[in-house]
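Service request form, structural biology core

Requester: graduate student, group of Dr. S.
Request type: structure prediction, single chain
Budget code: on file
Notes: please return the result as structure tokens.

Sequence provided:
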Amino acid sequence: MLMRTDPFRELDRFAQQFFGSQAPGTWSRPTPMPMDAYRAGDQYVVSFDLPGISPDAIDLDVERNVLTVKAERRPLELGDGVEMQVAERPLGVFSRQLFLGDTLDADRIEASYEAGVLTLKIPITEKAKPRKIAISAADSDDRKQIDA
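Core staff response, request fulfilled:
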């Protein structure tokens, strides 16, 4: 599994972490979301941190082996007479794209969302799994015909 990278997006992410200034992501320029990825047996597991985001605000799409995860954290509706004192949680659109190689089965991806973490389980295709190849021994009669 390979990740599609955008050097400018990574530079923006580092600048945001270093300087602490986080402009809200937009649909045309989303903020990258943190993730972990690992292989567990016959599948890859990818987890995205999306705290405070409603499951209905998350979009998962696969097109030509490119998995796109987009989510949007909307501002809280505080109502009348409420004055915000501190607003540090990032708002806006978050996105990440992963290139799923031919060894991964994009048709059988499972997604779950619990405690602000989106977890995807991506199975490895049967053709990519290691397998034993049986070796058949040639009969001695066949060898005599070949040697003759």
